[in-house]
């Protein structure tokens, strides 16, 4: 089953809110901070 991205889905985690690590496990998505959406907000980085 293929999930299609909507305009609000984060391109890094595909709307899941987390990313799979290569060595196993997962972590909060760095692109959306776990929200799963692609709302570009002000960040102080």
TrEMBL record:
Q: Which domain of life is it from?
A: Bacteria
Cite the source lineage.
Bacteria, Bacillati, Bacillota, Bacilli, Bacillales
UniProt cross-references to InterPro entries, sorted A to Z: DUF5351
- Annotated protein name in UniProt: YuiA family protein
């Amino acid at each position: 089953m293929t999930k299609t991205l909507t305009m609000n889905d984060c391109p890094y985690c595909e709307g899941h809110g987390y990313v799979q690590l290569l060595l196993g496990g997962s972590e909060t998505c760095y692109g959306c901070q776990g929200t799963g959406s692609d709302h570009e907000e002000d960040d102080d980085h």
